[in-house]
Amino acid sequence: MAEVIVPAREARTMEVRKGQTLEIVDLEGQQVGDFTAWLASDPNEYLSPGHTVSSLAKLVPEVGDSILSNHRRPLFRIVRDDVGRHDLVVPCCDPERYAIDYDAPDHGSCLLSLETAIAGLELPLRGEMCWNVFMNNQIEDGRIATYEPPHPAGSTIAMEVLEDVTVALSACPQDISAVNAFNPTPMALRTSD
Ligand SMILES: [Zn+2]
Predict the structure, then answer these.
(1) How far is the CA of 191 from the centre of ligand 1 (A)?
(2) Which domain holds residue 50?
(3) Ligand 1 centroid vs 136 CA: distance in angstroms?
(4) Whose CA is closest to 9, among 106, 93, 108?
(5) Average pLDDT across the chain, whole number
């Protein structure tokens, strides 16, 4: 087994291969991770929450569902999910989100963390490429309500890896809203053959 620890408020990358199992683990609980992936053979093909929602015709993927690329290629298939709450609608948090909506222009963000993590790798990155793993957003009368995630330490989603990819995970630094229960904490990426 290989493991990459993603410190609180930071992001890390990992190379994973077709046939492996990839786990995203919340080490301390109530934490959201912003996750994306790029095809090893062509980084212009990457994880797309929008295409995934479209092809699944559901807002929250479940065990057995595939996570698709921007060319609708299955990149991962969910084999276990301890949480069952995810957001594939909103982009990851970014400097403008904090500046405009929270009057906190110097706050760290998933976008900045991910940009730091992939520096030098020549991978395209936009906020809308991020799947907000474990985010407890609920659609209520057409509005999006964000609640504290209730899941405990050790909560895990495991996925069969269907293509050779580079993955990135940001342990979201949002501490102004309920996203991470006001307390950003570390996560982990784990692979097994
Ligand atoms: Zn974030």
Answers:
(1) 23
(2) 2-192
(3) 13
(4) 108
(5) 97
